[in-house]
Write a structure and sequence with these properties.
The protein is an alpha+beta fold and 191 residues long. The protein has one domain. It is 45% helix and 21% strand. The strands form 2 sheets. It has a 4-stranded antiparallel beta sheet. It is globular. The two termini are 23 Å apart.
């Protein structure tokens, strides 16, 4: 089968792949890897095209995505640096989370609790996730001796400025959400 509209057909075929093969991947205990690969393909494909064609749906703020479980609710903006004129130095600030003594996050923060995260657009979210995956800033989330999800973070100027946690079900929902959002606008533009 030849491709006539690669930017749309790749996304459609990836959704078809998720729907047809995710249960098979789960049977083989490969569901996280399978969904991460599908999600990455969708993010790269959609991210490049939404920049090129300025897709409006991706300018939506995360706070407007609702409680439909398509966007992981465990997203935090972690650090930023500010220049303090009074002390003539750079100051690292940690926002929106409480760190345990070992440096791990002790309290998960929800989108609705953080104005900076609520103001993040879908496009910014895709970019942060893409960067995190591309630079291999990924850590598995394990429970009961099984891989249950992933934690992805972004490093910007030597500071972790973003982190998201996805459970397996959220990876699948998020991937399909991104694809459907993209396809809705892509198809409307073709008419």
């Amino acid at each position: 089968m030849q491709s006539k509209n690669y930017p749309v057909e790749f996304v459609e075929r990836t959704v078809e792949l998720i729907n047809k093969l995710s249960s098979e991947a789960k049977k083989e205990n490969l569901d996280v890897t399978f969904l991460m690969n599908c999600m990455l393909g969708l993010i790269v494909a959609t991210n490049e095209n939404i920049k090129k064609y300025n897709y409006n749906e991706f300018n939506r703020k995360l706070s407007s995505c609702g409680e439909d479980a398509t966007v992981s609710k465990n997203i935090v903006n972690i650090k930023y640096k500010i220049y303090c004129k009074q002390h003539n130095k750079m100051i690292d600030k940690t926002l929106f989370l409480i760190l345990a003594d070992d440096g791990e996050i002790a309290v998960d923060v929800k989108i609705s609790d953080c104005q900076q995260t609520k103001d993040m657009t879908l496009r910014e979210l895709l970019s942060k996730i893409r960067n995190g995956v591309s630079h291999q800033n990924i850590e598995p989330i394990n429970a009961d001796k099984e891989w249950k999800g992933v934690r992805i973070w972004n490093i910007n100027r030597e500071l972790k400025d973003f982190e998201v946690k996805f459970e397996v079900s959220e990876l699948k929902c998020f991937s399909i959400f991104i694809a459907e959002t993209y396809l809705k606008e892509a198809r409307a533009r073709q008419q």
